[in-house]
Design goal:
CATH topology of the domain at 71-206 and 233-261: Citrate Synthase, domain 1
Helix content: 40-55%
Strand order of the largest sheet: 5-6-7
Largest sheet: 3 strands, antiparallel
Number of strands: 7
Number of helices: 19
Bound molecules: D-malate
Distance between the termini: 65 Å
Radius of gyration: 24 Å
CATH class of the domain at 71-206 and 233-261: Mainly Alpha
Length: about 425
Amino acid sequence: MSNPAQIILDGKTFELPVIEGSENEKAIDIGKLRDLTGYITYDVGYKNTGVTKSAITFLDGEEGILRYRGYPIEQLAEKSNFLEVAYLLIYGDLPTKEQYAAFDKSIDDHSMIHEDVKTILHGFPSYAHPMGVLSSLICSLTAFYPESLNPNASEKTINDSIIRLIAKMPTMVAWAYKKSKGRPVNYPIRSLEYCANFMHMMFADPTEIYEVDPVVSDALNKLLILHADHEQNCSTSTVRIVGSSQASLYGSISAGINALWGPLHGGANQEVIEMLDQIKNDGGDTKKWIAKAKDKNDPFRLMGFGHRVYKNFDPRAKIIKKACDDILHKLGVNDPVLAIAKELEQAALNDEYFVERKLYPNVDFYSGIIYRALGIPTNMFTVMFALGRLPGWIAQWKELRNTKEPIGRPRQVYIGEKTRDYVSMVDRG
Ligand code: MLT
């Protein structure tokens, strides 16, 4: 137990408890600060606010460390698969062989979607952004499984909702894509592994036999693992705050998908490729665009560089950069946009301006390049991020529920008008 923190306000000293995490992270517990002193804390964008105690993911932004349930991300990306990592995040431990087989089977059992969901899908215009389609389809599960709305449902019912969500998400993602192409949807195939099944649903054409390249499904497993959780980021915090009102799992995850959609969060991977295409179409002069990025009067901003919490490097970017080179080599992809990406990467890593501001390429910078090499269209990149982040969102929602956290309710510092009397419109003129 650490010594309490002391705070002096208006000449009086107050003591506040200090809490410590398992990796020695320290926090001042300000829960009673307002009662004791009349003050609240002010932290726009929650830059230095711990909102929960969590046992899921450890992140050290200074050292570039990321671990799920204690396991280093490097080991999981190298040796595990996405379904095993999903199990780890949601249930707290790696599964035994039997647990894994049962989990895998239950995912296969629930991967079909109620045929009426197609009616909802067909109500969207084909140009609808697939993130909007996906968040709507996920929320529609509340209608097909109304028992998921009960905040006091049994553990079994909650677990059934979780399994259904993991099982149906790839089908829904692939259907959102098929919708955008005006193509018939594909149904899941039980004998295929999770990622291979997903690629089948995305790309199989009824007129030919579709073989999933193992290089592609391995790459996808790695990408999804790297995105599976990232502690209290914007979309996860959204899932937790929506869940804290005892909203259903499906409603909370649907909200998380919308939070992820923004260009400052998951939407960044789409923005990266669009930026690289813009540079290519402009003649590919990276020096010109680097100069624009440095010019504070120019609205151009380099997408996919820097990170709010990683101060030196993003460990996921390190893994993905290597995977990116391997995959493009194995698939024999020669993408002109890649040469531009490499030049930008080198410029950013060697230029004082970027080094000083810690603007190094992050996970979004490379993920878009790999998705493109796997044949995934640009407007689906953020949807792929959502597919990867799903187990993390579920684990965080489950943890919040199990620890019975109170409803999220931040405070504010009011800066509007002081009290004034109402004057009728006639007198106001
Ligand atoms: C994420 O993986 O959620 C992003 O890197 C954003 C974040 O952690 O703030």
